[in-house]
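Reagents: none. Just compute today. DNA-binding protein.
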Amino acid sequence: MSEPSKRPDSSERHEAIDVSDFVYAATGARVRRLTMPDGSHWFPAVDVCKELGYTTPRKALTDHVPEGHRESLETVTGSHCLSIPAGREWRRDLQLIDLQGLIFLVQACTKPSCAPFKQWVAEVIETVQRDGSYTLEEAEVQPVEPGAPIAYAMPEQVAEAIVRLEAHNLQLDEELAHGQRKSIELRGETLALHREMLATQKATLAVQQAMVRAMERIADRLDALVPNPPPPGGNVTVLPTTASVLADWRQRLSVTADVWAVAVVIAPVLVEKGELCEPLESIAARTGLSVHRVNECLRLLRKHACIRSRGGAEDGAPVYVLNQS
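Predicted 3D structure written out:
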């Protein structure tokens, strides 16, 4: 096994594989990361467990990650005299794991997407056991800047995992874009439907307004036909006629020839003058009846509420008026 070279300081340190690509290939997701001044990386355990399918992060850490590879956020930042990152998601008691702790969780994960990364780890161990070391191949294109570190080619399994994940993410993006287009189309159709409904409502309102105007014109014409309409809630007063009075009396009592003769004489007077103020003798002379019979006929009309007495005149003649109900 070759002798380890002197560890460079943080200003000279260069990662052979970018840590973001490394973690992405291992977990299948872009995970939050804190990079310390010494170059070490720490990851929220809850993020890693979520992406790897662990339902209970605390149990996953206890079962698979040694204590030396997990710490709280406050301890990790405090050891480097750093403040805790801003944001509600970065709590003081948030559990973090280092890169080795993340690999421990990946190795214990049963998700099929972790298989290529786990196969690469197994290949690295086999190569170290067989050859004493594991070396990444140098990239075909190297940086041209003076003093730039050597660029290495990404291991085939790691590259395949990243390509597969990116293709899956592109597919998800296409499905999301398709869903968004459908949503926009549905919103457009809904907006068009609302516009049609609004146009229908406007047309209905126009018809209703036209009906109201037509009813107003009809009411105006009716008002012209009835010069003095009755007050609201009042009764319509219909002026009696001789014919209507005689028809009403015929319904009220059994009319005999004598009663009808008296009725025909007094009805026009009651309608025109509003009262009957004639001596019985005058009515008797006009009907050809006796005074006594005229008096009996008037009494019968009063009994059946056809007329009613309203005292007497100065000459002593009785006064009668219509008994209107």
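Residues 1-12 have pLDDT under 50 and may be disordered.
Action item: order primers for follow-up constructs.
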